[in-house]
Amino acid sequence: MARSSVVTTPVIRSMTSADLTRVLELESAIFPQPWSPGVFRDELALDNRRYLVASVDENILGYAGLMLLGEDAHVTTVAASPDAGGMRLGTRLVLELVEMAMEAGTRHLTLEVRFSNERARELYRRFGFAPVGLRKNYYRTEDALVMWATDIDVPEYADRIADIRRSLESSDE
Fold this sequence. Notes:
Layout: E1 11-14, H1 20-30, H2 37-45, E2 49-56, E3 59-69, E4 72-80, H3 89-103, E5 108-114, H4 118-126, E6 130-139, E7 142-149, H5 155-172
Parallel strand pairs: 4-5
Antiparallel strand pairs: 1-2, 2-3, 3-4, 5-7, 6-7
Helix pairs in contact: 3-5
């Protein structure tokens, strides 16, 4: 008998403090230097922060955050459970963050990513992020690659984002 290859489309919504238990479980499982509960609570309380969770059947499988800083926005975190394979969860979460930044009128996006995390670096490149520098010893055992996506307020960037959204929507059909 053939196995079904149907992948459920996750629901993406704003993170609340009620989500923190599961978010902290994922944080500890994914990152060698996890944020503390206090850091997440502080972040959720700030007006210029936006945090999202992605879930399937009420089970949180990923989350992401954004800090709005006038013309700039900074991606603070993106995390997806290994159990979310095939859902393109990283793409979905980054897309939502980028669209939030665009709606807020920002012009540039920044982030840091582990230098060794080629999969994440490729994801960010699809969104127009380019490497601009290195932060030595940013992580306990590794450097961070600093990446920027500039001019996200121009029509060409909006076209790039629309193409990514269409790609996700066609894969959901």
